[in-house]
Every structure is written in structure tokens, then in C-alpha cells.
């Protein structure tokens, strides 16, 4: 039996994330980002068999601002990215880190039973997970 310490995604994920309806405009999304001081919003499913999406400041810059599109005339569903690569809350942070490296991810929703319950990024994996795992902090 291994004595190797396991830190899971659940141990390091953040549970303060925000959702937006895909029918909202980019203007509404930007206002929401400013209100909650975040650069990323998850886009809710339209129906049970749909997938979650994501919109962030980079997507808005690339697909709205750079193309000189009017943010009040572009809906979130038109530019959101989906489907998302997600992490499971019971996943070892070492595997989650490999997932991030393999797919060049900056953050990922944490999903359980088909619902987003949190968000994880390399920041949490290293600053919270690695510190706890190795005791270096």
C-alpha cells in the first residue's frame, strides 16, 4: 500500500464562479465580469442535452473588439467556446495538471453529476495543491 499523499481537485478548486445565459449580450457579459471582478463566465446550458460553454475577456477581445462588432448586438452563444474539457472533483491534482498541460488549458470547470460545482486553474494546483502535497510553503 502506498503512503503517497493525495490532494484532489476538490481540495483546491474555487467554488465562486459565475454563470451567464447564452442569450445575454456581450455588453451584459462585460458588465457582469466587471461586477464580479472576473475575466471568465461559464455559459449555462440551453437544455438538458446541451453542454456548458465559457466566455472570457480574450474571446471578447478576439471576436468582438478586434472585429469592431457592437457588443450589444452580439449574443454570448455566438462566441462562447463549447464543449469544455472538465475536471472531476476526485481527480488527483497531478493528473489534473497533466490534463492542463496536454490541452493547454488555463482553467477548467469541475463537474459532478453533470453540474459545474467549481473551477480550477494551474494557480490552485500549484499554490494550494503542490504546497500542501510537498509542504514547501
Write the layout of secondary structure elements.
Blueprint: H1 9-12, E1 19-20, H2 26-36, E2 40-43, E3 53-56, H3 57-65, H4 76-79, H5 93-103, E4 108-112, E5 115-120, H6 122-134
Parallel strand pairs: 1-2
Antiparallel strand pairs: 2-3, 4-5
Question: Mind explaining what this structure looks like?
Answer:
This protein has 137 residues and is of the alpha+beta class. It has a single domain, classed as CBS-domain (Roll). It contains 6 helices and 5 strands. It has helices at 9-12, 26-36, 57-65, 76-79, 93-103, 122-134, and strands at 19-20, 40-43, 53-56, 108-112, 115-120. The strands form 2 sheets. The chain has a 3-stranded mixed β-sheet. It has a two-stranded antiparallel sheet with strand order 4-5. Helix 2 (26-36) links the parallel strand 1 and strand 2. Helix 5 packs antiparallel against helix 6. The longest helix is centred in the C-terminal third of the chain and has 13 residues, at 122-134. The protein starts with 8 loop residues before the first helix and ends with a helix.
